[in-house]
Recover the amino acids of this structure.
């Protein structure tokens, strides 16, 4: 509990905020020359801005002293006044133009860096995190960098420079009381603003958390559109999201209404400071120690200082909000990749394509072991099938071979090379997989087909589609290969999606193939056609087939039967039937089910319409 309190303390939060800023500074380093030039323009703009009241003072004093002889001097002063105004505007615009590229380039680089980092994180991270919340954190995090740069360069630094210049003028030309009053009022204003804003930040954190949660719930319900419709739970999804948004609304209202105290306190401090300074200035004008021009100068300085200070509360709040948003992104960037290439790891060299599991043990959670001492070899160009009940660990084999996870014990070898000793990129280039749950990009069919080899020509893509028996279906569509498949391929049937997945894997042309329930969504006719295509595609390829329907793997060179993470049988289809053990029982059960389904369909087909 004490650690949590320390984490939320202002001092700890402040250290973390500046640590986050330092972590993001490299994204500005590319344009350091442009940044320095922009800062120089900023200083020149403020020098010109502070010079305007000084020229105005000289003009007023000259006119007040001798109106009759002031015809030449006012022209020069007015020209100087106009020149300073133009210079201030010119340097401000130069600063903006120079820094715009810096700001947007930093946002671009940060977004791409975060995306690359997310792709490098292990599958475990993505299964445990919710994509809606991650996307919201990424969006707010990149925007927070822009916000910080915008407010620091266009608000805080200009105010600090102008304040320093005004302080120098006041201290060198007037009684110290003016500088003391202004310093004290600014310190009071800043202290009050920081204190109240820090108190209000808990509402902003709650808003961020609840907004991410509501966004994730909304996206999750849309991604699972069909499931929502199957169970008629549209009202449940709306209610669940609305409950979260209700809490978000309460936090947002508290955040907004508490701003009244902050605004009133800021206004009171400014009013008191202006009143006290003007009181001293008027007294000295009446006493003859200050001129009317000096009064105008002090008044102009007050306006120049307190007008931007009037926005300090907003700026500080936005910076604090940006820090809060940035913290989520920095934490994301600091997330350690579970699966890493070893330093100097070479690329995998695949000659024959032999795959060997040697006494592999693995668990997703320590208390629940998935694989126990699993060992087998897939000879080059051969097909090995794995069957078993749900939860037996079949799909885990594919995930380990793809190195989404590292084994806890034992090792996995490809052509004698431990896959942990080679680069992940080269390993995954050598393996093609058709997963059970095929997910497509919300783009055209052609894009999803070509994803297996983005450099492939159109003829190669179409050839792969023909091999997967989907070309005729595609050409029957009004837009052909340019047909959009919808979010996650929602516009295609399960069988059509799997055939797209098969085609893009064929197009990839890997030495090792994995079919994880690759025909589970196909009808019998389509399954027979695709099995023929898969046999052709798997020729001279090392193939691992994870199957539920035993009829799809009768031609496998070797079949493994798994139960509770262990291999309980192995052999060819004929050998396993002869053993009359687990495989034979599964075969008999599936044959019986298939016969019953056929018997049910025959009367329905022969009955009159």
């Amino acid at each position: 509990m004490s650690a949590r309190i320390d984490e939320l303390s202002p001092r700890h939060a402040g250290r973390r905020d500046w640590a986050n800023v330092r972590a993001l500074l490299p994204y500005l380093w590319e344009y350091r020359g442009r940044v320095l030039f922009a800062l120089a323009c900023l200083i020149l703009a403020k020098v010109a801005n502070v010079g305007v009241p000084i020229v105005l003072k000289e003009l007023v004093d000259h006119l007040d002293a001798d109106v009759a002889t002031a015809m030449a001097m006012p022209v020069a002063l007015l020209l100087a006044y106009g020149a300073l105004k133009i210079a201030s505007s010119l340097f401000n615009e130069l600063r903006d133009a120079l820094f715009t590229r810096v700001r947007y380039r930093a946002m671009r680089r940060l977004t791409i860096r975060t995306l690359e980092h997310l792709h490098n994180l292990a599958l475990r991270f993505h299964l445990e995190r919710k994509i809606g919340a991650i996307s919201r954190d990424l969006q707010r995090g990149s925007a927070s960098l822009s916000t910080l740069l915008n407010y620091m360069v266009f608000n805080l630094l200009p105010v600090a420079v102008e304040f320093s210049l005004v302080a120098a003028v006041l201290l060198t030309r007037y009684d110290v009381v003016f500088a003391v009053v202004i310093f004290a009022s600014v310190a009071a204003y800043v202290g009050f603003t920081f204190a109240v804003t820090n108190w209000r930040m808990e509402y902003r954190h709650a808003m961020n958390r609840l907004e991410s949660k509501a966004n994730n719930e909304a996206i999750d319900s849309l991604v699972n559109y069909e499931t929502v419709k199957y169970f008629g739970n549209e009202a449940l999804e709306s209610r669940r999201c609305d409950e979260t948004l209700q809490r978000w609304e309460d936090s947002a209202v508290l955040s907004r209404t508490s701003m009244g105290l902050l605004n009133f306190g800021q206004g009171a401090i400014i009013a008191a400071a202006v009143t006290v300074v003007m009181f001293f200035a008027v007294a000295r004008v009446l006493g003859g120690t200050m001129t009317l021009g000096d009064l105008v100068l002090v008044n102009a300085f007050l306006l120049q200082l307190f007008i931007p200070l009037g926005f300090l509360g907003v700026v500080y709040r936005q910076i604090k909000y940006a820090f809060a948003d940035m913290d989520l992104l920095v934490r994301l960037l600091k997330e350690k990749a579970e699966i890493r290439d070893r330093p100097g790891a070479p690329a995998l060299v695949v000659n024959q394509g032999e795959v060997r599991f040697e006494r592999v043990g693995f668990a997703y959670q320590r208390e629940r072991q998935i694989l126990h001492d699993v060992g087998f070899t897939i000879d080059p160009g051969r097909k090995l099938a794995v069957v078993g009940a749900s939860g037996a660990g079949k799909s885990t084999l594919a995930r380990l071979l793809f190195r989404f996870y590292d084994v806890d014990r034992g090792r996995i070898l490809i052509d004698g090379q431990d896959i942990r000793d080679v680069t992940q990129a080269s390993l995954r280039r050598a393996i093609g997989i058709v997963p059970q749950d095929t997910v497509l990009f919300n783009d055209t069919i052609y894009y999803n087909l070509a994803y297996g080899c983005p450099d492939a020509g159109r003829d190669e893509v179409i050839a792969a589609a023909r091999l997967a028996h989907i070309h005729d279906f595609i050409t029957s569509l009004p837009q052909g290969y340019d047909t959009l498949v919808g979010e996650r391929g929602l516009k295609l049937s399960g069988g059509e999606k799997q055939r797209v997945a098969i085609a893009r894997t064929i197009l990839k042309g890997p030495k090792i193939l994995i079919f994880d329930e690759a025909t589970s969504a196909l009808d019998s006719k389509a399954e027979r056609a695709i099995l023929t295509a898969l046999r052709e595609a798997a020729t001279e390829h090392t193939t691992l087939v994870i199957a539920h329907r035993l009829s799809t793997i009768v031609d496998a060179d070797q079949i493994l039967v798994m139960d509770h993470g262990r291999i309980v049988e192995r052999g060819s289809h004929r050998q396993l039937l002869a053993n009359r053990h687990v495989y034979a029982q599964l075969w008999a059960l599936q044959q019986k089910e298939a016969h019953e389904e056929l018997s049910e369909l025959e009367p329905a087909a022969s009955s009159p319409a």
